[in-house]
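Supplementary Note 3. Input sequence used for the single-chain structure prediction.
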Amino acid sequence: MNTKKNGGELLFSNRDLRQLIFPLIVEQILAVSVGMVDTIMVSSVGEAATSGVSLVDMINVLFINIFAAVATGGAVVASQYLGQKKTRRACEAADQLVLVTGLVSLVIMAGSILFRRQLLTLLFGSVEEDVMANALVYLILSALSYPFLAVYNSCAALFRSMGNSRISMEASIIMNIINVIGDYALIFIFHWGAAGAASASLVSRMTACFILLYRLRNKRLDIHIGVSRHISLPMIRRIFHIGIPNGVENSVFQLGRVLVVGIITLFGTSSIAANAIANNLDGLGVLPGQAMNLAIITVIGRCVGAGSFEQAEYYARKMMKVSYIINGLCCLCVILTLPLTLRLYGVTEEAKALGGLLVAIHCGFAILLWPPSFCLANVLRAANYVRFPMCVSVASMVIFRIGLSYVVAVEMGLGAVGVWAAMVVDWAVRVICFVWRYASGRWKTFYQAG
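The predicted structure, written as discrete structure tokens, is reproduced below.
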């Protein structure tokens, strides 16, 4: 039984939160490990393959965040309907979400394959030919997995809306097992290099997608697919109302990261490889925060749908405290284990040393700045207050993450370290804006039940 708060029953007990958050942390660890396994195993082939894979992974993350943004829109809408106890409307939202993410991902897949060389040249300029060759192969095979990954993300978001993150965790475990076995076989036995890593990821994502689609057809679930047999433009608009601003924000954020990598390419292959290592390892430090981002959507969305902003504030404070504790511990662990983890990468000592420094910068400042910079924004989104986080994130990215990176890295000659210093400034600006707007209470005036 949930405890009482000011005469009302809480929507989530501590046990409910643990059952939601713990599988999400495991799932986030597994999600990051896919990229880590690819990079570590491909690094045995050489720096050209490692650099080619890392460049394409930046593009992959850009598109994955588009899919995740639409999935977030669907998850918010479904959570709000569950808070209103309108389960059929939640199921209709699920059908439209799966449909629209499938269509969007097919368009992105086709464009990425048809214009692969132009895309890589546009974003990264003239890179060494062996790096480009590996990047082209890896991009084609990665693009083929986009529809499966997009639908998988949508299904996982819908399970989280029900407070059931264990099912998506189980699918993620299967996906990672397939990916690791496939990587080992295709890279070390068949010597496919970057193509082997991408092929293993493709098969693993297909499998996870089909598993969640099958399980989401269970009509005993509060949210299941197969209820709506037609396209519902009002429901899609409701999903897009949240998904599009979030998608623009995430896309600009990731595009900014890609453009910043374009700056890093000016400093040579070792800097590119160091950046790839840092992107792998620093992601581990903020995994709990990523998990809390997803949990916040479910919890705050349910509270908002039920019309209880008092509980929304209560859970926002509670989940931010948890984010700080577990995020800080994880960042410290990443920093302390750097001497061991850096040995896993088959790159030069110069690349390892620079990669370690970049990870230390990221995780050191993330202990203080990451939770309010990212988690708090999802509290606002779950209440349909989506434009302010989008505008702040886009402006901060353009001015500080990109503009300041060029000034500090190129003009001041600090190289890759300057790029990551500019990232810290970007975080600080986001923290100031989001804390101020949350404290103002304006985010509580934008939700309208539908």
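Strands lie at 4-5, 8-9. The first strand starts at residue 4 and ends at 5.
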